[in-house]
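Is zinc ion placement plausible here? Inputs below.
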Amino acid sequence: MFLESKANKDSKKGWIEVITGSMFSGKTEELLRRLKRARIANQRVEIFKPKIDIRYSDEQVVSHDQNAIHSTPVDSSGNILLLTGNVDVVGIDEAQFFDKGLSGVCTTLANQGIRVIVAGLDMDFKGKPFGPIPELLAVAEYVTKVHAICMRCGDLAQFSHRLTQEEQTIMLGEKEEYEPLCRACFIEALQKEKEQKKL
Ligand code: ZN
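Reply from A.M.:
I modeled the complex. Tokens:
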């Protein structure tokens, strides 16, 4: 994958940026901010997201504040390569739901001179690294960790605590299903749940 792609003729420089953090940390907002700024500079921008994210409209990357940009839903990371046209910037949202091939895809795009901006959850609801994100963090030039506010104590939060007992890792939801928590409150919450299961 790395050797296949050569820098294109006008030797544009590509790179990978990752925006990551818990739910309600403003990842999508930050992705949109960067993409809009690129657009203002007349750069050609394309946005992809996994087809699994069906919370809102199929055709839009929509952040929680309804700040929308048109996007293309794709089945697998490989399709991003097939669908990327003549662009300067590629944005990828909800990247945690893509397959493990995503870091290779982003590397190929960056090697072709494209600026790649990826947004996604760093950890699942159990606090474990999520899907292709860990590998992306390794290959990216720039990593931005954004934080939410802990709903229990007001500190910075980096965990997405699930409020329901659903065990499936891929579960999309809004405020009813998750709360952002700091480390101390997250550990406390997990401990309480463990004790409740014993009863
Ligand atoms: Zn807390």
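Short version: The longest helix spans residues 183-198.
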